[in-house]
Amino acid sequence: MVEQHKVCQWCGKTLEKPRTTYCSDDCKKNMKSYNNSIRKRYKYKICFKEHNYISLLRLFKYDDGICYCCGRKLKSPKDKDYDPNDKRAPQVDHVIPISKGGGHLWNNVKLICKECNSYKSDILLCPCIYKLITFNLNAVSD
Questions:
Q1: In terms of CB atoms within 10 Å, which end of the chain has fewer, N or C?
Q2: CATH number listed for the domain at residues 56-141
Q3: pLDDT, the chain, mean
């Protein structure tokens, strides 16, 4: 009888312990993360079949280049000195986050600066309105 060796489901290394599935905690964590991303993609395809092509430039023109949270004028993506990592770089924000059931549609997107977007994260606007107003007042005073 030929002895078969089990291999790690993530990296393919031969396992020392016969009843394990992964060779290390890192492999287990990577596989869990990968499976979660697959689940999210599947959920997105099923739930959000309706989809609009939304470009940053078109949204920038539509919202006049103004962040809807802090009200500041943002740098245009067409500028020569445009840096997408700048805190005032424009980004597309889903008012109702996709993770909360919102769609990738024109009536659900707004222009937002990177700083406000990272602060807002995937929070719905209504529950965090007080925090955003406070944040806006602090931003204006800078």
A1: N
A2: 1.10.30.50
A3: 76
Please report the pLDDT score of residue 64 as a whole number. 92
Asked if 43 contacts 35 with a C-beta cutoff of 8 angstroms, the reply is no
Q: What is the structure's pLDDT at 133? A: 43
Task: Tell me the two tokens of residue 31.
Answer: 């596989």
Give the model's pLDDT for residue 45. 60
Helix (H, G, I), strand (E, B) or coil at 73: strand
C-alpha–C-alpha distance, residues 123 and 69, integer Å: 13
Helix, strand or coil, per DSSP, at residue 126: coil
Q: Where are the alpha helices (DSSP H) in the chain?
A: 25-47, 56-62, 114-120, 129-141
**CA–CA dist 121, 117 (Å, integer):** 6
100: helix, strand or coil = helix
Threshold 0.70, pTM exceeds: no
The answer for residues whose C-beta is within 8 angstroms of residue 122's C-beta and 6 or more apart is 97, 99, 100
Residue spans per domain, the chain:
1-47, 56-141
